[in-house]
């Protein structure tokens, strides 16, 4: 390895001498090596992770951030080409699937990548995810029909889920928890900036060709892949054969959770649009999907020998509180970003490019608050305080969006977005760190990180789907009450740009109803913010260990003991393992 290792804990068993045994199977030596012992019951309890430094850390961080950036960018860049693509393929009624087709596999498959990465390694899983994402991008760019384009987006989503999960796992494993908040802040910056840059870049590329919104992923993803291949070099897992590794994956659980979630989300997406809510198709999707989800829960927690979701997580109030808080916080972040962009484009008549500029106050607030939070955590080691502050600001920030109207001034809009942005920025790293403080083993670190990403993806997908449902159904109802029958309300809601083609007095009437429908979405976001606030109160009270690991294979520092010696030693061992 080109970098110095502060701590080592992977699936390989390392020899050591003069050890002090701990209760979680990890042993610590005076010579600077750690050993994680495997038990007959679980050969994959420990996973191989090195704390990186110097050039190796820089290359690993760069490749991970770039990989995450193109995936995050792809969630919003498509919003600028929906009308163009719908017209080109004469299939405007299906453009919504360009977003749903990407988000569904991300939400469904993320949970399975934890076990896959334990069996085959984080680097291998991330490389596979990048390659799949690149293949999906190429399919989308070369599409000759709407079906082919939607298929390409699905492939992108499969790869994007792996990228998103593995980036967080690799970053968690590469940096000691005492320094992790600074690294996680970069993730917050990526998510927030990509949400704004997506429409801006997409609007610029659309002038050349909408296909360049997908071609752009190829060189960026290729560069990220090259840096990852040569810059990140974890130790290989040589303990288990390929057959043994394959046996560690819960195939039935993966099928059950994926199919169950897909059916429920399809019911939510298609209901009221392509099918009536009381139609046999929608009822079957909800009923069968619900039953399959219940079967997954029973299988995962009672029968599976390699569960996708560890039962200890569900039983832990602090872990579930952190995950629920992050899930709902990220949910209203994505839904609010989506409909704020619509607000600027329709109500304020902004272009896709200009709407991205208008969202900058929110992005800047997320970025600055996340960076300040990382410094605060690094100094105080206190995660609970920022979780509570974020929880308090969540319903306040979202509730302030209800003040947005046709004539809202620039200053008021900026103030509203700043409050919401601070809430989101404080949550990004705090929620994951809060959950990670509650786990003791390397495998649990991987699984809780993946579980957090799974729930955040599920939360964002469900929240956007519900927000779209609320906006569409109420918007159509409001508009039908104020316009004549010869003006199709469904078309005005599905393609709002057509509003500006109507006579001015009709536009004003419709925009009033449009704002009413948008406020219903913000009421929904307010409810999510309240749940986020309540959950934040039950997160862990533990602080990040103060001990700093020294650089070097044989010069690893000891963690500082707390006032109660045994408790301090246990926290130190947990941090190393």
Automatic annotation (TrEMBL):
One of its GO terms (cellular component) is plasma membrane. InterPro entries: MFS, MFS_dom, MFS_trans_sf. It is a multi-pass membrane protein. The chain crosses the membrane at residues 51-73, 94-113, 125-142, 154-177, 183-205, 212-231, 251-268, 280-299, 319-344, 356-377, 410-428, 521-541. Residues 1-45, 544-577 are annotated as: Disordered. Pfam families: MFS_1. Residues 60-544 form the Major facilitator superfamily (MFS) profile domain. It is found in: Membrane. Residues 555-577 have a biased composition (Acidic residues). The keyword Transmembrane applies. Residues 1-38, 545-554 have a biased composition (Basic and acidic residues). GO terms for molecular function: transmembrane transporter activity. It comes from the Eukaryota. Keywords: Membrane, Transmembrane, Transmembrane helix. Belongs to the major facilitator superfamily. This is Major facilitator superfamily (MFS) profile domain-containing protein. It comes from Candida oxycetoniae.
